[in-house]
Design the sequence.
């Protein structure tokens, strides 16, 4: 359901490009995902295919694939914008040169990389990846930290934020009974900055929706006091390549 909070926002993490990784199966599936986004009030979706060793994604093919999907959406009468991006595995950074990384930045702005931590608990490898991106002139948006639990997760995230990283939480996990408590713990600690659907298909799994999670954050500090930033200013700033800085008190903790 569309809410005022979500209208006109950006889904920063979505496997929208068809037939390229474990995301949309085909063009019809991708079109239905984009229609889900439009129904939720999402104006633009960053198509973020996996850039990692177990997916044979060819970075140089992505612009043409994005254009093909845009044409299909126009033909279907869907207004959702498709923006460039990629979900870059931390252990792939050394294999990618700067132009390759720039081509998969969120929004194609050349600045923000959606960074997928190494599988397992969040550890020093995440720090090393954020440091490596900083050294090369990029900034990191850490994807789905809730999938990398460790007893001191909040402290580890705060350390990454202090290095200039921001953190993307998975929207659906804020409303699912089995995961909502853990997500609220992170949100209340001020270590979730923006949302992404991390949707892979319209036929199964998570939907391309952010509104319900934003409604949860309306009642959750510190996000409640900065909902415009969470829902609009930060995601649009990221895709435009701006120096987005967390307003939450914990950011420098």
Sequence:
């Amino acid at each position: 359901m569309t809410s005022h909070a979500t209208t006109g926002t950006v889904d920063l993490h979505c496997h929208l490009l068809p037939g390229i990784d474990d995301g949309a199966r085909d063009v019809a599936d991708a079109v239905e995902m984009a229609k889900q986004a439009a129904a939720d009030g999402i104006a633009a979706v960053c198509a973020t295919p996996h850039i990692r060793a177990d997916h044979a994604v060819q970075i140089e093919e992505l612009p043409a694939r994005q254009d093909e999907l845009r044409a299909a959406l126009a033909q279907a009468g869907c207004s959702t914008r498709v923006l460039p991006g990629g979900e870059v595995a931390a252990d792939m950074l050394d294999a990618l040169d700067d132009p390759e990384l720039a081509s998969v930045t969120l929004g194609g702005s050349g600045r923000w990389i959606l960074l997928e931590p190494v599988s397992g608990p969040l550890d020093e490898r995440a720090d090393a990846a954020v440091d490596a991106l900083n050294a090369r002139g990029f900034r990191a948006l850490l994807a789905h930290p809730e999938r990398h639990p460790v007893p001191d997760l909040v402290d580890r995230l705060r350390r990454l934020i202090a290095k200039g990283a921001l953190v993307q939480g998975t929207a659906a996990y804020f409303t699912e009974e089995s995961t909502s408590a853990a997500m609220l713990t992170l949100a209340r600690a001020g270590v979730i900055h923006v949302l992404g659907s991390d949707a892979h298909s319209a036929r199964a799994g998570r939907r391309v929706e952010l509104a319900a999670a934003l409604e949860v954050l309306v009642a959750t500090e510190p996000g409640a006091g900065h909902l415009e930033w969470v829902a609009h200013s930060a995601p649009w700033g990221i895709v435009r390549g701006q120096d987005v800085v967390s307003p939450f008190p914990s950011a420098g903790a």
